Amino acid sequence: MSEDSENMREPLHETLQVQRGETEASLQPLRLGERVRSLRLGQGLTLEEASKLTGLARSTLSKIENEQISPTFSVVHKLVNGLGIDLPQLFSEPSNSAQPSGRRDITRRGEGKPHPTATYEHELLATDLSHKKMVPFTTRVRARAFGDFPEWIRHDGEEFLYVLSGAILFYTEFYEPVRLEAGDSAYYDCTMGHMLVSVSEEDAEVLWVTA
Amino acid sequence: MSEDSENMREPLHETLQVQRGETEASLQPLRLGERVRSLRLGQGLTLEEASKLTGLARSTLSKIENEQISPTFSVVHKLVNGLGIDLPQLFSEPSNSAQPSGRRDITRRGEGKPHPTATYEHELLATDLSHKKMVPFTTRVRARAFGDFPEWIRHDGEEFLYVLSGAILFYTEFYEPVRLEAGDSAYYDCTMGHMLVSVSEEDAEVLWVTA
DNA sequence: TTCGCGTGTTTCCTATAGGAAATTTACGTT
DNA sequence: AACGTAAATTTCCTATAGGAAACACGCGAA
């Protein structure tokens, strides 16, 4: 990093800002109060009961729900734990986002769209839907040795891997290989070379989701 | 609810507390500062740069990292957006391992970060990574009846569901409920109300990925 | 060594979060 | 209606969060 003058700071500032998306003035309204209220009422709780559960004062809860205050992190933590808030609704943004699009696609076991390769036998799931943010598929790992692959598999995006059965060796470009068994999972950048090899008696089966 | 005296409050308090697991004094330390610092350093940022990115004062960031203050939710929000942190990660317990720079995170079976609710028992996966496009977690479905849910669960984004074991009824707002068994999967818009109920002898276990 | 200068910490002050209690609102009941 | 009760809201006060600026600590260059 070379420095020229004292105003080399601003450009960096701007650059970083842009990279991260809006930070300063923008940042959605974050209807936290609204959500907390609907969550509480959904459980049929009064402020008094919620107060007991969370250890927070009734008044505090009321103010949070009416967006009169911005609760501290410790208070939010008590809220989450006390009311047993479900994860997805916790980190999803406002959700006032209109269009309740109601797509749904069920794929029965073994009914996916087959896509065999030399080393893997993929089965694409939810293929009736297009424009998905994620692409889920199950895979039977036929490869048995590192050498079965001509080269690293690399592509854009991120990938989540969950071992359904059997055991695999998970090779990645920048790490030592790891043995994964049923129930183990991994999350990684696909730009980093990666590949799977079955090491169990039978071919291992894994679930992959890419985004 | 009959009231006798002013001290009938405590017993109820205790009762409710127990039902939900510890809330008050307990609630693990939540080394927020520690995590924020490692996240910031992991990105090679100085307090000054982080300040520009988040719009927060250097001093404020310093105090947060040194656990001298509990930031308000709005401040946490700026932090999350400015530094690209996953919110769920902040509410699950601190992870011992520092952020790897190569972006790969392995989660062993049963080693996720627990997050129990009244109806589900979630286990967050890959919590060492932040800024993920997807959030994967496994869930034990405790709910046994439609009525166990006060209302539809609804939030932004899309969700992929894969049944690991047991059998569930998959209720969605705009479709008839469907029975799903091990190996079956579903992909749907989360803005549409949805919920799961176990219908097998034992609680069903599912894998969820949201994006 | 001393001078800068970038970095993190601390101080000081104002704005505001959070709890206890008073007040108001919303409903049943008689 | 007027009352009783339980809910939520508001008030009042203290504790504390957050920003600006001063301070302290390295560390490299002259």
Oligomer: homodimer
Note the beta-strand portion of chain A.
25-35%
String of helices and strands of chain A:
HHHHHHEEEEEEEEEE
- Which segments of chain A are poorly predicted (pLDDT under 50) over 5 or more consecutive residues? 1-27, 94-98
Structural shape of chain A: elongated
Structural class from helices and strands of chain A?
alpha+beta
Topology of this protein?
Two copies of one chain form a homodimer.
Chain A: H1 9-20, H2 32-42, H3 47-54, H4 58-65, H5 73-83, H6 87-91, E1 104-107, E2 113-116, E3 120-124, E4 135-141, E5 158-165, E6 167-172, E7 175-181, E8 185-189, E9 194-198, E10 204-210
Antiparallel strand pairs in A: 2-3, 3-4, 4-10, 5-8, 5-10, 6-7, 6-9
Helix pairs in contact in A: 3-4
Chain B binds a DNA duplex (30 and 30 nucleotides) through residues 1, 46-48, 56-63, 65-66, 68-72, 75.
Protein name (chains A, B): Helix-turn-helix domain-containing protein
Pfam families (chains A, B): Cupin_2 (PF07883), HTH_3 (PF01381)
Organism (chains A, B): Vreelandella halophila
Account of the protein in words:
The structure is a homodimer of 211-residue chains. The first copy, chain A, has 211 residues and is of the alpha+beta class. Helices cover 26% and strands 27% of the residues of chain A. Chain A has 6 helices and 10 strands; from the N terminus they run H-H-H-H-H-H-E-E-E-E-E-E-E-E-E-E. Chain A has helices at 9-20, 32-42, 47-54, 58-65, 73-83, 87-91; strands at 104-107, 113-116, 120-124, 135-141, 158-165, 167-172, 175-181, 185-189, 194-198, 204-210. In chain A, the strands form 2 sheets. In chain A, strands 2-3-4-10-5-8 form a 6-stranded antiparallel beta sheet, with no helix packed on it. A 3-stranded antiparallel beta sheet of chain A has the order 7-6-9, with no helix packed on it. In chain A, a hairpin with a 2-residue loop joins strand 6 and strand 7. In chain A, helix 3 crosses helix 4 (58-65). The longest helix of chain A has 12 residues, at 9-20. Chain A is elongated, with a radius of gyration of 24 Å. Chain A starts with 8 loop residues before the first helix and ends with a strand. The model of chain A is unreliable at 1-27 and 94-98 (pLDDT under 50). The interface between A and B is large, with 90 and 95 residues. Chain B binds a DNA duplex (30 and 30 nucleotides) through helix 4. Chains A, B: GO terms for molecular function: DNA binding; DNA-binding transcription factor activity. Chains A, B: Pfam families: Cupin_2, HTH_3. Chains A, B: Residues 1-26, 90-117 are annotated as: Disordered. Chains A, B: This is Helix-turn-helix domain-containing protein. Chains A, B: Keywords: DNA-binding.
